[in-house]
Amino acid sequence: MLHGLGISSYTFRHVQNRLRDRLDTHAMDLLGFGRSGKPSRADYSLPGLARAVLATMDAMDLPKVTLVGHSLGGGVALLVALTAPERVERLALVGSVAYPQPEPPFVTLPRLPMAWLPTMLFCRAFIRMGLQQVYVHPDRLTDAAVEEFSLGVSDVAGAKAYQRICRELRPAELAAVTESFPRLAMPLLILHGKWDNVVPLSSPRRLHEAVPGSELHLLENGGHMLTEEEPDWVADHLRRFIEVTPSR
Predict the structure, then answer these.
(1) Cα separation of 70 and 94, whole Å?
(2) Burial of 212: CB neighbours in 10 Å, binned 0-12, 13-18, 19+
(3) What DSSP assignment string belongs to the chain?
(4) Residue 67, beta-bridge partner list
């Protein structure tokens, strides 16, 4: 399970709890996020993050997995599936980026010179403000979640890594691979909220049309943070998808 920008594997806790009785799940902090390393010379581009996921799978002796990607993590999962299809049994995308799109302020503003400093000094306020903008029900955002997600940018290394990641996010990297989406051979599940204000609804619909045999499910009152606000819906679809859909 691969999380989105500015958060961590913690966002999958509710989904994992609902799958734990029947499935073996792993949620990782992407390179530069959460409790993962934040080396100054790392490759924080989307292809670089995808390579780091494959290296983690190697280290965990996981030759083939079902990949679940949320938001930015979905874009990383797509690149893993395209570059190493033999390692991906199934692919599930939740509120996932897939095509070039307008960038939200929490991507553009951190690129400014020295932006890492206020990000670090006011990390909790920064994370709370960003999440409140993408929750359908901001009152459901807990202090515990803000505290956990803030850990990734609470020191110099984390705040600078976040700035580098935002600077490395280039729409052209996705544009270069979109023509390859129809060649995705593994089963594909697409989950998206109709109220998602980060990834436009046109993106999952376009991906569904591009990939033969893919599944698309839209949640009427769902937003971008489906793993946080709608874990039952996400877990139910993932359980059925994994248990019923044979790999190819």
Answers:
(1) 5
(2) exposed
(3) -B--TT--GGGGHHHHHHHTTT-----BPPTTSTTS---TT---SHHHHHHHHHHHHHHTT-SSEEEEEETHHHHHHHHHHHH-GGGEEEEEEES---S--PPPHHHHGGGSTTTHHHHHHTHHHHHHHHHHHH-SSGGG--HHHHHHHHGGGSSHHHHHHHHHHHHH--HHHHHTTGGGGGG--S-EEEEEETT-SSS-THHHHHHHHHSTT-EEEEETT--S-HHHH-HHHHHHHHHHHHHHS---
(4) 91
Residue 42: count other Cβ atoms within 10 Å of its Cβ.
Answer: 18
Other C-beta atoms closer than 10 Å to the C-beta of 198 total 23
Compute mean pLDDT per 10 residues along the chain, 248 residues long, and list them. Answer: 96 97 95 93 92 97 97 96 97 95 72 78 87 93 95 92 86 79 96 96 97 97 97 98 82
